[in-house]
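User: Teach me something about this protein's shape.
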Amino acid sequence: MSSFKRARKYLLPAFLIVILAVSVGGYTSYSIGSQPKADPSNLYVGVAFGGNTTQEAKVLIDKVKDYTNLFILDAGRNALTQNETAVDEICDYAVANGLSVIVNVGVQVPYDGSRYWYWNNSLSVTEQWKAQWGDKFLGMYYNDEPGGIQLDGNWTAYFTLFQKYFLNTNFSRAVNLNQDYVNSTRDLDQIYLKMLGYMDNDTSPPNYNLEANFFVNDILKGNSGMNDLEDADVTTFTSDYALYWYDYLGGYNVMFAELGWNCSVDEQIALVKGAARLQDKQWGAMITWTYENEPYYLDSGSEIYNQMLTAYEAGAKYIAVFNYPYNNGSLYGALTNDQLIAMQSFWDDIHQKQFPDFSGPDAVLVLPENYGWGMRNPNDTIWGFWLTDDKTMQIAIATSELLSQYRVSLDVVYADPKYPVANLDYQHIYYWNQTGI
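Assistant: First, the predicted structure itself:
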């Protein structure tokens, strides 16, 4: 599609690959100095189970119950979570063994009645769980990686396929039984026209307000499953690897930052921690695969320990290890003995040793409003629609320099009149375009 040649006019130089990879490697704990001790009393530590049977779940619970207090039934859309009896049995077993539970029973797919995310598409089951498990039922894990999907979606192909429908009044009438779908289609049409205009002129837009509106209001707030969970007063969780600020704006109560993918641990924590602090939400860390391409496997035990410790010292309320796939013949899924030993060492250490607390509002970097750049690498997209622009390099350099100075004491947030940084007692406030950082 010639209109979407998307010339890389502002492509960043390769040396920024190194800049954006700050702290991907080995972790060295800060000097304790005068920092207070991090408090493990309100911390949830556990596994995100991605197996296929109740027996696999029970075997894993038996293995980890002495050094975890959280079990995430994270089998998503597979057959296990379509079985209400199996879900009850697994979570009953977890709670009986002293673990709190978060439940993922899939995603409500709009306009496809065959793919319900609840049995009979009813939220009454959550009331049953609240009564059955009490405060051990923490909430629902709903959907997965919405920000990452937004960034990595093939929007050029989407527009190529569906452009003939945009601004088509007959098509709008055909889908008007679902107003959310009509709204999202119209908003995408406006983004499409915007892209045509700026790309044909080989320029970048002055702001990305349309794109932010589409993600927050159409993708997240326009999702009927999210609305149902909010109406039922159920705490919502999910994991992501970018755009945490906007995940929270879209309604999520708790975000897990995915630590892995060969991305910067400190940067991911800075992004999710800053968003949670300024929007008064909670955050956690999900230890996931090492690389974003096959073969998919978890990092070494020592690296998992380091990532868990980094998140703990930064103030995470939840820390979990993503245990998937379960197709390798191992008794404990993707987890090896080395990694399980590391988890036990982490649990023992935080309850027996002193570690510094870097969770306070020390330093903050403020990015441009609605600037949805993925920040994983120099060529990452902006909202999945745009390539890098004239702000990207300055943001990358400022982020790198401040992460080098503050590590996980840094928060990264976005300019937003609803959430001014002046509301919090930050000791150091930096803006992406100021000199002398």
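Now, about its shape. The first strand starts at residue 44 and ends at 49. The chain has three domains: 8-24+359-431, 44-148+223-352, 152-217. If you'd like, I can walk through any region in more detail.
User: That's plenty for now, thanks!
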